[in-house]
Amino acid sequence: MELRHLRYFVAVAETLHFTRAAEMLGISQPPLSQQIQRLEHEIGTPLLKRMTRGVELTDAGSAFLPDARAIVQLADHALEKARGVARGISGQMSLGFASSVAFCAPVFTLIQCFQTRYPAMELITREENMALLMQDLHEGLLDAAFIRLPCESSKAFNLKVVATERMMIALPAGHRLSQQRTIALSQLAEETLIMFPREVAPSLYELIVSTCLRAGFSDTGFRQAPQIASSLAMAGAGCGIALVPASLCCVSHPQLVFCEIEDNTLFTDIAFAWRRNHPAKPVLHLLSLIGEASD
């Protein structure tokens, strides 16, 4: 039994007219009649009663129609689904996020635009530290990821910068310098610097540490927080100061104050990263949106 035979039968059964069904299908009437006869021969019973002014369904035809219609609809759905996946407008895309990107507005504006333009695409998202993120991307467990630069291991991937952030100083609200809008790092050299673990973002970690050491910080004056975001809670509790990306300044904490760094040289890029060979179609669509946003 061929799918086209079912499609032809459904057309005739729904119009109850060979000529109108043939016009709807884009074929001539004689071949349509022949194909219906072949279907009836295969089934072993008439499905239609040929009348002077059209056709009627036999009892067998009435019983056969719902299943035939469902099969045709399922085949059409499968066809559109396959075509959508091939064009990258439906299916799934696995997308990773560095933990420190969680508050970056441009990234999530892009995601919202992507989901609006491709509503049939399901995004499977995962938040990881940078080390795990780059490993998953390398092993093909992720199609792409939003990462924070600098990142040494990112050199193995294609990168597109989507935002640049300056680093800010997070101080306890009662700190002696909390009323200043801009603070030199050297003014904080005696403070405890709360740092995220090196494996969260190794290159950014090294950049911050080296900059602070040049500003007079002691290499023993560092305290570790589980993540970049959690360093804010520790600073608010009076455990020290923290240097965080500007996007984290949106965090509302009554015991925190954010200040600019004087003569700031601490900047970090947020980039879209994907494998160099054979990127998935949805990745190319998201890249296109990134290009539109930067125009």
TrEMBL record:
GO terms for molecular function: DNA binding; DNA-binding transcription factor activity. Residues 1-58 form the HTH lysR-type domain. GO terms for cellular component: protein-DNA complex. It comes from the Bacteria. Pfam families: HTH_1, LysR_substrate. The keyword Transcription regulation applies. Keywords: DNA-binding, Plasmid, Transcription, Transcription regulation. Belongs to the LysR transcriptional regulatory family. This is LysR family transcriptional regulator.
